[in-house]
Specification:
Structural class: alpha/beta
CATH class of the largest domain: Alpha Beta
Number of helices: 8
Largest sheet: 5 strands, parallel
Number of strands: 12
Radius of gyration: 18 Å
Distance between the termini: 42 Å
């Protein structure tokens, strides 16, 4: 598993050095920069296996860096862990909406962060294997590798989290999932994100998808499913 290239974008030198030390002890290659602009440029040049990104950076913020990377098909595949002192639910939701794959709040335990790194690298490897996958359900077409969604023949622009929710539901048509199961499938275990955020994102999905969004069915008292 070890040996992957990890880029750290963190303006606090002591934290950047702590991250580098612990990652390199595990056999990873780790490089650190201190500004959002440097991080964006170096990420596009190196195409690391994973990016650890601070939210509050001088100049370009971590949210902006993440959005720019995820909006570019060339760098959208790079998994992003946001590492920040901002731990309110609204901040976490904003991070996921910007395209973060994981969200860790400061202060953090290095062992916990390393476990998140390993899990995300495994997930990223599995996603790359399925990058040519295309899901079709009724009038909905989803291409995982290109991160594209079409409904009723029209391209639909979704946030990173909306895309992952739709992909999860569409890959298991007819199955009913609770809000907690959807959070776990999209973000993993132990996330301080409530079911309310799933309701908000499902509502946004339906609105953006128009008539194709009618295929996302609410199962009262349980959760959601794809199809009647």
């Amino acid at each position: 598993m070890a040996g992957e290239n990890i880029l750290i974008v963190e303006d606090e030198e002591d934290i950047a050095e702590l991250l580098q030390y612990n990652l390199m002890r595990q056999g990873y290659k780790a490089e650190a920069v201190g500004t959002g602009e440097e991080g964006l440029q170096l990420c596009r040049e190196l195409m690391p296996d994973l990016l650890i990104l601070d939210l509050m950076l001088p100049g370009l913020s971590g949210l902006d860096v993440c959005r720019k990377l995820k909006d570019d098909p060339g760098s959208a595949v790079v998994p992003v862990i946001m590492l920040t002192a901002k731990g309110e639910e609204e901040d976490i939701i904003a991070g996921f909406e910007a395209g973060a794959d994981d969200y860790v709040t400061k202060p953090f335990r290095p062992k916990v962060l390393l476990a998140r790194v390993k899990a995300l690298l495994r997930r990223g490897a599995a996603s790359r294997l399925n990058s040519s996958e295309e899901l079709v359900f009724e009038s909905i077409r989803i291409h995982l590798g290109r991160h594209e969604v079409f409904g009723d023949g029209k391209k639909i622009d979704l946030t990173h989290t909306e895309f992952r929710i739709l992909h999860f539901l569409t890959s298991r048509p007819g199955w009913v999932f609770t809000r907690g199961q959807i959070v776990k499938a999209v973000h993993g275990d132990d996330y301080p994100v409530t079911g309310r955020s799933i309701d908000v994102q499902i509502a946004a999905l339906r609105r953006k998808m128009g008539s194709a969004g009618d295929h996302i069915t609410t199962v009262r008292g349980v959760g959601y499913k794809m199809g009647e």
